[in-house]
Write a structure and sequence with these properties.
Shape: globular
CATH superfamily of the largest domain: Collagenase ColT, N-terminal domain
Number of domains: 2
Order of helices and strands: EEHEEHEHEEHHHHHHHH
Number of helices: 11
Largest sheet: 7 strands, mixed
Strand order of the largest sheet: 2-1-6-7-5-4-3
CATH topology of the largest domain: Glutaredoxin
Structural class: alpha/beta
């Protein structure tokens, strides 16, 4: 879940919530009273002064109330994800730390967020970015790998960019939450629905997605469509990827670039054909 677009706010918060056909991402920006010092100095139970388990993988610092020594493959995957995101999107490699906090159970996780981030919505996984480190929080579950790929994508994007349009932020997180070897073949939940819609020539209006400023405006179909435009740009006609990376470069330069839909022009037929293949 991600940035809702209040440009003057200095903290970004993103997370996940259940929906009828899976898990939606609901994003907002909050000004929170908790400080990073409090966050790092207190564990989930707010009793000891250090986390029972700590490890570092590149710029990812991982903290947990459970022993995660057997999760090395997952941490390697997150390191590879950073290379994939920055490589695919031609992003600069940031040195801003990304702190990952993992909790052994839902109750401890929710208690922690209520104490230090009382305004944060209760989600299975959440991303917070203040002036300084990016922070990802998640519950240890069978969805942990998906949650971490999604939320750390947000973290990687927002340590390289001052701002990311809401639809693109979520579309990229949806794209990269899929396991690396399955990204081209498509998000398992979204691909069949997109193909079904396209066979009936129900296209997706990118300009409408660009108009969203708050996650409450988006439903599950909008998340799927955001993913579909990212997939189309990265794997569709020649020139799509260059348009996307050029647009992101303009955003990094603190410009107010022409909207991506205007840069693309009328590509409806190509969009439909892409998913029919």
């Amino acid at each position: 879940m991600h940035n809702a677009g209040k440009k003057k706010a200095n903290l970004v918060l993103a997370g996940r919530s259940k929906r009828s056909c899976g898990y939606a991402r609901v994003s907002s920006i909050f000004l929170l009273s908790a400080t990073l010092i409090c966050l790092l100095a207190n564990p989930a139970t707010a009793a000891p002064k250090s986390w029972p388990f700590e490890t570092h993988w590149g710029r990812f610092a991982v903290y947990s109330d459970a022993n995660l020594a057997e999760q090395r493959d997952l941490f390697r995957e997150i390191q590879q994800l950073e290379k994939d995101v920055t490589g695919e999107l031609s992003l600069p490699v940031s040195d801003v730390p990304i702190h990952v906090f993992l909790f052994s159970n839902k109750e401890t996780y929710q208690r922690y967020l209520r104490r230090w981030f009382p305004q944060a919505p209760q989600r299975r996984a959440i991303f917070i970015k203040k002036n300084g480190p990016a922070m990802v929080f998640a519950v240890l579950s069978d969805k942990l790998a998906v949650d971490l790929r999604h939320e750390t994508t947000h973290a990687i994007l927002h340590t390289a960019h001052p701002t990311v349009p809401l639809w693109l932020d979520e579309g990229l997180a949806e794209y990269f939450e899929t396991p690396r070897e399955k990204r081209i073949t498509g998000h398992p939940e979204y691909l069949s629905k997109t193909q079904w819609a396209n066979w009936f020539r129900i296209s997706s209006d990118l300009a409408r997605l660009e108009s969203f400023n708050n996650m409450s405006e988006m439903d599950s179909s909008d998340y799927r469509q955001a993913w579909s435009w990212v997939h189309f740009l990265l794997h569709g006609p020649n020139g799509g990827k260059a348009l996307l990376t050029g647009y992101l470069a303009d955003l990094r330069a603190h410009r107010r670039p022409q909207k991506l839909s205007a840069r693309l022009g009328d590509v409806n037929a190509q969009y439909l054909q892409h998913f029919r293949r």
